[in-house]
Amino acid sequence: MATEQVPPIADEMPTPVPDAAAPDRVEDDAVHADDRGYRQPDVDVDALRALLDGRYREVRDLVRTNLAEHAQVLLDEEQMSTADFRERVKDVVVMMAGTGQTGMGFPQEYGGGGDIGASVAAFETLAYGDLSVLVKVGVQFGLFGGAILQLGTKTHHDAHLADLVTGRTMGCFAMTETGHGSNVQALGTVATYDVGAEEFVITTPDDASRKDYIGNAAAHAELAVVFAQLEVAGERHGVHAFVVPIRDGGRVLEGVRIEDCGPKMGLNGVDNGRLWFDGVRVPRTALLNQFAEVTPEGRYLSPIDNPNKRFFTMLGTLVQGRVCVGGAGINAAKVALTIATRSAVRRRQFEAVSPDEEQVLLDYGMHQRRLLPLIARTYALHFAQEVVAAQLHEVFSGPGAGEEGSDEHARRMLESRAAGTKALGTWHATRTIQECREACGGAGYLSENRFAALKADTDVFTTFEGDNHVLLQLVAKGLLTDYAGEFEDMDQLGMARFVAGLAVETVVERTAVHKLVQSVRDLLPGGDTWDQEAGLLDPNYQLAMLRFREEHMIGGVARRLKRGVDQGMDPGAVFSRVQDHVIAAARAHTERLVLEAFIARTASLPDGDLKVALNLLCDLHALTTIEADRAWFMEHGRLSSTRSKAISREVSALCRKVRPLAVDLVDAFGVPEEMLRSPELLAWGE
Amino acid sequence: MATEQVPPIADEMPTPVPDAAAPDRVEDDAVHADDRGYRQPDVDVDALRALLDGRYREVRDLVRTNLAEHAQVLLDEEQMSTADFRERVKDVVVMMAGTGQTGMGFPQEYGGGGDIGASVAAFETLAYGDLSVLVKVGVQFGLFGGAILQLGTKTHHDAHLADLVTGRTMGCFAMTETGHGSNVQALGTVATYDVGAEEFVITTPDDASRKDYIGNAAAHAELAVVFAQLEVAGERHGVHAFVVPIRDGGRVLEGVRIEDCGPKMGLNGVDNGRLWFDGVRVPRTALLNQFAEVTPEGRYLSPIDNPNKRFFTMLGTLVQGRVCVGGAGINAAKVALTIATRSAVRRRQFEAVSPDEEQVLLDYGMHQRRLLPLIARTYALHFAQEVVAAQLHEVFSGPGAGEEGSDEHARRMLESRAAGTKALGTWHATRTIQECREACGGAGYLSENRFAALKADTDVFTTFEGDNHVLLQLVAKGLLTDYAGEFEDMDQLGMARFVAGLAVETVVERTAVHKLVQSVRDLLPGGDTWDQEAGLLDPNYQLAMLRFREEHMIGGVARRLKRGVDQGMDPGAVFSRVQDHVIAAARAHTERLVLEAFIARTASLPDGDLKVALNLLCDLHALTTIEADRAWFMEHGRLSSTRSKAISREVSALCRKVRPLAVDLVDAFGVPEEMLRSPELLAWGE
Q1: pLDDT digits (tens, 9 = 90+) for B632-679
Q2: Which residues are within 8 A (CB) of B499 and not within 5 positions of it... i.e. 6 or more apart?
Q3: Does A489 touch chain B (CB under 8 A)?
Q4: Is residue A35 scored above 70 in pLDDT?
Q5: Which positions fall inside the Acyl-CoA oxidase C-terminal domain (chains A, B) (predicted)?
Q6: Rounded Cα–Cα distance for residues A612 and A41 (Å)
Q7: Which chain B residues touch A492 with a CB distance below 8 Å?
Q8: Which of A369, A445, A447 sits opposite B459 (nearest CB)?
Q9: Fewer CB atoms inside 10 Å of the end CB: C or N, chain A?
Q10: pLDDT at position B513, please?
């Protein structure tokens, strides 16, 4: 497939004579000056795949091998009952654990691999396969195991890590409550310290406080990490985490009630459940005490005085989950694009170029426009994800990692970046899989062609590990306050008041992007011509556009918030009215980070065809991004209507250049053939 | 729920003093002059529902009653095996047929209702329930029954209609082939006339020509209407339809091979299958001979000489299927919006206005922006659908209906309008259901909350009964050629050559929109100020914008096609490059029709609160539509950046005005409570 033959792109046409009847309306999609002398690069698929796999190629290949070995699970998902499929998924997870694949992030003394970066790489790659397996792995090793590792201390590690790394002990992560989806600090579950018994008593006070959507809870978990409001001697200390046994040998323990969440849109191999606790007693040592301790005699101790800060420091240690979900979304999109692209160079529809033969789908301009920018964006997000995964590894593996007092600013930047990338990566998955399904027509609707499961399973990615809209609000808050507060602390009243307390200029100067934008100003002249000085394919121009948008949007949000509050409006109402701008600003910020990552990675390559090919993709991504928001750039005087139209033409021209590379570009993702299924769409063996 | 209490919208603020630091950047989302003196209308839910139900209220209520009675099928879909669920769906369909609901479109002498409009209304309403039932009804009564009715003559009617109307005889519609999805004229199945035996011999020559995705084929159909290339005495006459028995008492007949399409993303209550014919013999009378006949001695006769025209006349009689699917998509969106909107006035998230209580989701600006324009668009599409259904009724029930020679232009306009509305209605369903699922967070992912089935089942609506992109190309072709050719005849080479043969001015003058736009020119002054003369809330302004866009886009496509061909480029290659403009033009055309329908319906109402409320919605829809494409309007000199920003502010302001009406607006859809399920999201009985 890698050397698939395609017909040459249609001949160039001479520059057209302007049409006198409508001189300013004639746009020409066919002629493109840059096409002259253009030589199509040859893509070395293996080299490109090595580049994408990066330093964790070996780990990724281990996962690919495991996926291929257990490929049957993709069929089992269609054919088994839910109960059987849950067992099957559990078995696959335990078998994969046996290869070391799922324990990369745990310390070696407990059977882990001691490499957080490798752990993210392994998880991401798992997204090429059945996503119930992925999510079950995420629940067991990421959420449950991660909480024991990050929030617990040696006692807990010694007690649980070795068994959970092998999958002998299954656990769940009981944070979310029915009535408290995104606002974790408002949880209702209570853990009261009984000084006489030296025990905590865990209680669910009402149905809004039942634990909900908890993966592994309905069937398999023996232990739960339960988040609850800690109460000691009548005083509340905020949310803390406790290790609570909920089953023993499969039997639900007394005081615990478990209900199955029932059938879901997808991920039915994961047993999501609801939990209620009716005065369940656990020993004092059940408190995961990395950040707080209750002494036997009932004294509450914590190295972090501020309860808010303490809570969000705890939450912050769980950032790896978001990094992983973002990466999984991006990789699920790769599966869909591989199938849709390969199928689009096989399927023919209508006579177009020749009266005797129908035209291959990917030679249609519209089909190129539908798929190729999505491939480009997938590459962009891949490199952005690489950056955030590397930062995660750095922050959690570097000197002093895990200690309170390690570089807080770096942690908040990481949390913000992880949140933004998760939001963009998972929305990209939803959109890409949908477009690929439609591009494959009726065949895309058959389960054997993979889109059914991909769509149903990934749909909740935009919601779990933080609802995307809420995450983007957090990103915006960090930008507005220059990361002054804890990342997760989504107090809208406080944020509006904080911003309102500053002079507008101060707000803008305090924003994290201000310094960056100063350099944009230095780079590009002001006034109406500033955007005409640079070529569309100049990465400095592309970046300057995204940086300008980002700063302008953040400044705009700050001004709006401040003006509303200054004028006596209720801060919450002001926030509500500005909310879409808040989210747009955070999105603009993350888009800039994504483009920067792509440009930087491409720039780092040695000259050659691979660099030429990735530059094409990078240009396609950058200009598609600007094109998508060209209205905003025009409204804000940074794009003339002439140049805006030129960008659309350039995007189409870039699509035509990327077209002959398309199959190589998706093959370089290295999705195992067994994971693609789609026997007829791809016609294996032909 | 209809009188749900909501807090008043936040107080107005005084006009802000322009911010000296950034005078041209200050936009104010809070202050809105029109707000002054605005009195919120009271929506009479029953009256609004009566308005939406229109002249077919009784039929719609019959379907609502039937849906409620068989509500258990929504649960069965989750709990039964595929084989059992298929039987269950079949039984429900037959039971519904017993109430007369599904036979509205058939002549009374065969047990039908003799009312095509009622038949569309019944089908649309069925989309409130399980969509396998809907699609099974569509296959049996719309496609199979419709083909017998429209393509057959009295012999076929007498033989089959009475039994198919009751569901005693189940049938399928075997048109689509694996290798010929959208290009029906290129089908491979052959029907050869054997003059000696006075029989047709039906043969599948290769796997690309197997019938594919055929609903009712895998389990239930006894008869198939098979589309095949007719060959008489060595001469091909194009595609014709034949009634072919494929099962007898459940046993597959000799020469017929049937394969199950296997699990699908959704609609698993419908038994889709593949069919191969190996020299299957049917009598001469098996040819559905409304438009062509083969005499016993092997003479081919048809009142329509041109084979192309004959074929597309046949296809044209099946337009009802598209009208129905468009309506089903719109109504499926209503279910999602009802759940998401009602849930958004119950669920709270984060403290915003008050430090003591979390804010209701729908009071957040972003949540309003996500849901309310979708409600507005649903109303717009509802009224547009009402128009196309009325036209269908008119064309097929009026004098001379069904006869060759009845007003061809009216038929082509109907076919075009049905295609465009189907595309917009089904894309709207996909987008709306997705947004509603995400707006309901994790709860939206549980099957009991309906989105799982809604999403999975409707996903293929954008593909079946004509892929949306292909349909929009057909619409554009009609516009470019002023409906000179048959609607379905998607010969891109011919179309490009046809356009190229005209002078550009001729092309534009020939387009169907030209006359309309002339009136825009008369209405609005030219030059740079034309768009500043009218208020944003003036429907004439809104319509003028959409009409301008439509004409300009069609003219642009014509010029591009013509220039490319004139310059010697391959017509197919020219088409491919212009394809995204072609589709954009068709979309612009249909958007204009939709807005016209909404404005006309609203204008026809007597003064009063209902009219005020629908005017708000209509403004919201119109301005959201312009806002979504504001880049184009700016690029083409029809929107200044100032006015563009004003439109975005107005959309937000309209959202705030619609917010208090939201629950009433969705309640007026009249989705039966049993169809909503979602016990926790909606908290019945609270």
Answers
A1: 999 998 899 999 999 999 999 999 999 999 999 999 999 999 999 998
A2: B480, B481, B507, B558, B561, B562, B565
A3: no
A4: no
A5: 539-679
A6: 6
A7: 350-352
A8: A445
A9: C
A10: 54
Structural contact between residues B89 and B73, judged by C-beta atoms closer than 8 angstroms: yes
Cα distance between residue B377 and residue A150, in whole Å? 48
For residue range A593-620, what is the model confidence (pLDDT) as tens digits?
A: 999 999 999 999 999 999 999 999 999 9
B430 touches chain A (CB under 8 A): yes
Q: Can you read off the two tokens belonging to residue B179?
A: 């290798």
Q: Tell me the count of A-B CB pairs closer than 8 A.
A: 295
* Pairing assessment for the beta strands B235-245 and B223-232 based on DSSP bridges: antiparallel
B505 with A21: Cβ contact below 8 A = yes
Selecting from B358, B505, B572 the residue whose C-beta is nearest the C-beta of A183 gives B358
User: Cα–Cα distance between A597 and A642 in angstroms, integer?
Assistant: 29
* Cα B506 to Cα B502: distance, rounded to the nearest angstrom: 6
Question: Rounded to an integer, what distance in angstroms lies between the CA atom of residue A257 and that of residue A203?
Answer: 11
**Subunit contact A492:B352, Cβ cutoff 8 A:** yes
The answer to whether the Cβ–Cβ distance between B365 and A572 falls below 8 Å is no
* A527 interfacial to chain B (CB closer than 8 Å): no
Tell me which residues of chain A, numbers 130 to 169, contact chain B at a CB-CB cutoff of 8 Å: none
Give the pLDDT confidence score for residue B347 in this predicted structure. 82
Mean pLDDT of A119-130: 98
pLDDT tens-digit readout, A165-175: 999 999 999 99
Q: Looking at the predicted structure, is the pLDDT value of residue A30 above 60? A: no
What span, in angstroms and rounded, lies between the C-alpha atoms of A176 and A157? 24
Pairing of the two strands B223-232 and B190-194: parallel
Both tokens of B74, joined, read 């929504």
- Judged by CB atoms closer than 8 Å, whether chains meet at A576 and B352 is answered as yes
Burial of B204 (0-12, 13-18, 19+ CB in 10 A): buried
pLDDT digits (tens, 9 = 90+) for A216-242: 999 999 999 999 999 999 999 999 999
Question: Among B23, B535, B32, B15, which residue's Cα sits nearest to residue A577?
Answer: B32
Q: Quick count: other Cβ atoms within 10 Å of Cβ A236?
A: 12
CA distance B460 to chain A (A): 7
> A540 touching B, CB under 8 A?
no
CA dist., res. A104 & res. A111, Å (int)? 9
Of the residues A635, A659, A677, the best mutation for testing chain B's interface (the one with the most B CB atoms within 10 Å of its CB) is A635
B493 touches chain A (CB under 8 A): yes
Q: Which of A182, A445, A570 to mutate to test the interface with B (most CBs of B within 10 A)?
A: A445
The residue type at A336: A
B29 touches chain A (CB under 8 A): yes
pTM value? 0.92
pLDDT of residue B107: 97
Are the C-beta atoms of residues B616 and B658 closer than 8 Å to each other? yes
Other Cβ atoms within 10 Å of A484 Cβ, number: 11
A568 contacts chain B (CB < 8 A): yes
Cβ-based contacts of A364 with chain B (< 8 Å)? 576, 579
Distances (CA, A) of B70 to B91, B272, B330, B668, B674: 10, 23, 22, 22, 9
